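Researcher: Sit down with what I've pasted below and flag anything odd:
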Amino acid sequence: MTAASFRERLAACVPPDAIHEHERLASHTTFEVGGPADWFVEVPTVAALQGVIAAANDAGIPITILGGGSNVVVSDEGVRGVVIRLRLAGIAEAGPGAVRAEAGVTINGLVRWTVGRGLAGLEAWAGTPGTVGGAIYGNAHYSGRNIGDLVREVTVISRAGVLATVTNADMAFAYDTSRLQRTGEILVSADFRVSVGTPDDLRAIARASLAHRKLTQPLSLPSSGCLFQNPDPARDVLPPGVPASAGALIDRAGLKSHRVGGASISSVHANFVVNEGGATAGDIRRLAELARTTVRDRFGVELRYEVVFLGQF
């Protein structure tokens, strides 16, 4: 299939201005790094998503889903195939005690929506970067809680374009993990459990969460969020006196503020690498690998990535 004919197939699914060739992905990620996607397509509806999946499958072109652009590092060489940005942005009550949010809704937008309506359960997630789709894919965590704990069920679409409803019990939620990482299914929407609350009380909790993040995270510079998963004390042998924290291990290794090119390990939180200006994805990957090898050599703990690397490194 030629590029022109593939564009025609895509244009039958989404508006022409939603289709971009050789789109630089740095402008679509919170790290502000990354080369071009062969095709970058913004998808506003489930039907459009099914159409784009079918077009890519027929052309033998791989598909990558990009949410809010947090928790990813895109290669300087970019990403081959079609990168889909979901613009599914609906939020509605889904019966008593539940709110349904589509995959493209930002977590902050969802928090504002629920808080404003006196629906409790998500207010502590204020300040979480990214979208519902990305949060479910990676089972986002904050302050010892996983977002999957709040999910009743989800709607997904397979890489063959088939819709399905999946209950919480079948989502295989675990630390930084969901079944979507194994199956390649794409989240369409998620139903969250909520209860009745008072908007003023919920706003106070949201503000406290935001204040805590501002105090403990380097929010003034581009980053992906936490780079590594925290060690698992049941699997990793930690040195005496060191908590089960990737940031603590990197800090104890003396790497706070260490720099490679335009990337540095944050002086605020050592599990964050920040773009101080002009960083490349290569800088970030080299600095991350330095942190991994130093922690392994010093403490015998193998850090596992929380961030997802897209493209060729």
